Amino acid sequence: MALFGFGKPAASAERQIPQHIAVIMDGNGRWAKKRGLPRPAGHAAGAETFRTIATYCKEIGVRYFTVYALSTENWKRPQEEVDALLDLFRKYLREAAETMAARGVAVRVLGDLTPLPEDIKRLVQEVSGIADTLGAEAATASLCINYGGRDEIKNAVRCIAKRVKDGELALSEITEDTVSSALYTAHLPDPDLVIRPSGEIRLSNFLLWQSAYAEYYFTPVLWPDFSAKDLDAAIEDYGRRSRRFGGVK
Ligand code: FPP
C-alpha cells in the first residue's frame, strides 16, 4: 500500500479545514493490551493509522499534518519497545522515500536526531532531500522523533544566545519571530488544531511554543482505532469554535 494516496475530496466542502493539524498519537499500548498483544503491535497499528489519517488529511486539504512519534522521554521504555519503534521509522521512511514525490506529500522529521542509529539518520537525510525538491503545492507530513517542547525551546535559546554573544544579533532585536525561527518547526505555520486521543488531557511537552493559540480536541478513542470519521468530528468541533487570538469578536 502506498504511504500517501490521493482520493476524492470530502463531501462537505463548506466546512472550515484547519491548515495545520497536530496529533499526539496516544493509546497504542492500551489498544494492544485490550487484545492480549505485545505493546509493539499497538505501535504498528498506530503507524497504520498515521498512514490512513495522513492520506485523509491530504485528500481534504489539510496542508500540514504533524505527529508526535517519539518523545525525548520515550527512550526510558523497554528496549524491545524502543527497537520496535525504530523499526517502524525505518519502514515508513523507506516507503516515504519511494512514494512521496509521486504523492505530493513532503515528509519531514523534526527533533534532536543525534541519538538515532546512523541508518535512520541517513534515511532522514534522504527523505528531506526529496522533500526539498517538491513544489509549493505539496502537503507536508512531519514526524516528531526524539522531540520535546522544552528541549526544543532550550536549544533555540542557546542558538539565539550564541548569535547575541557573537555580535550577530542585538538583545533588542529578539522578537517572537526570532524564537519561532530557531525551532524545529521554523518552516511550518503554528498548528490550528491539536488532537489527543486516548482520553488523556495533557500536552506532554508537545509543540509548547507553537500551540499557544491552537484549539485542542480530546477524544477517548485510542489512536489505532482513530478513523477518518473521528478526524471529521474533530474538524467539525474546531469549526464551531471562535478563535480570538486574545482579541474580541
Ligand atoms: C504513545 O502511546 C505512543 C508512542 C509513544 C509512540 C507513537 C508512535 C507510533 C504510533 C509509531 C509511529 C511511526 C510512524 C512511522 C508514524 P502509548 O504507547 O504511551 O500508549 P498507552 O498510553 O496506551 O500505553
Based on the model shown, name its key terms.
14% strand, alpha/beta, disordered N terminus, Undecaprenyl pyrophosphate synthetase, 6-stranded parallel sheet
State the major sheet. 6 strands, parallel
CATH topology: Undecaprenyl pyrophosphate synthetase
Uncertain parts:
1-12
Q: Radius of gyration, rounded?
A: 18 Å
* Structural class label: alpha/beta
| Number of domain units | 1
Counting DSSP H or I runs of 4 or more residues, the number of helices is 7
Shape: globular
What's the CATH C level? Alpha Beta
What is the architecture at the second tier of CATH? 3-Layer(aba) Sandwich
Description:
The protein is α/β, with parallel strands linked by helices. The protein has one domain (20-148, 190-238): Undecaprenyl pyrophosphate synthetase, CATH 3.40.1180.10. The protein contains seven helices and six strands; from the N terminus they run βααβαβαβααββα. Strands 3-4-2-1-5-6 form a six-stranded parallel beta sheet, with helices on both faces. Helix 4 (118-133) links the parallel strand 3 and strand 4 (139-147). Helix 1 crosses helix 2 and helix 2 (39-60) runs parallel beside helix 3 (79-103). The model is unreliable at 1-12 (pLDDT under 50). It binds farnesyl diphosphate.
Topology:
Layout: E1 20-24, H1 28-34, H2 39-60, E2 64-71, H3 79-103, E3 105-110, H4 118-133, E4 139-147, H5 149-165, H6 176-181, E5 193-196, E6 215-218, H7 228-240
Parallel strand pairs: 1-2, 1-5, 2-4, 3-4, 5-6
Helix pairs in contact: 1-2, 2-3, 3-4
Bound molecules: farnesyl diphosphate.
